[in-house]
Write a structure and sequence with these properties.
three-stranded antiparallel β-sheet, flat, about 15% strand, alpha+beta, 3 strands
């Protein structure tokens, strides 16, 4: 099995901007979950009985997330909406200043042997 997944690591300001806007999206909209860490992904593989894992990081700095998304205000209270708007504005400011590129991806290759 092979999986390629972005991980929550920033190696430059544009990746920090991506992580900030994506964290905001995950916190205040629906349908997205934040990136899993390398350790969490490897634990999922182990739990599924996959072994002989090989891990490699790749970093292509691709643009991945548009800085616009819908705040589902029906899910957010007034205080939460104000906090969400501030976090969103700060993330958009980072994007304006540094650009936005995806964080590194983790490629995990693993095998599950039959018994």
């Amino acid at each position: 099995m092979i999986i390629v997944e972005n991980v929550p690591i920033a190696r430059n300001k544009a990746q920090e901007a991506h992580l900030a806007i994506y964290q905001c999206k995950c916190n205040y909209s629906s349908g997205d979950i934040y990136y899993f860490s390398k350790e969490q992904l490897l634990e999922m593989f182990r739990s599924a009985g996959l072994t002989e894992t090989r891990v490699e990081f790749v970093d292509y700095n691709l643009s991945a997330t548009p800085p616009i998304f819908y705040f589902d205000s029906s899910r957010l209270g007034k205080g939460q909406m104000e906090k969400a708007q501030k976090e969103y504005a700060a993330a958009v400011d980072m994007i304006k200043k540094h650009g936005e590129t995806s964080p590194p991806a983790l490629i995990i290759k693993a095998v599950k042997h039959s018994k």
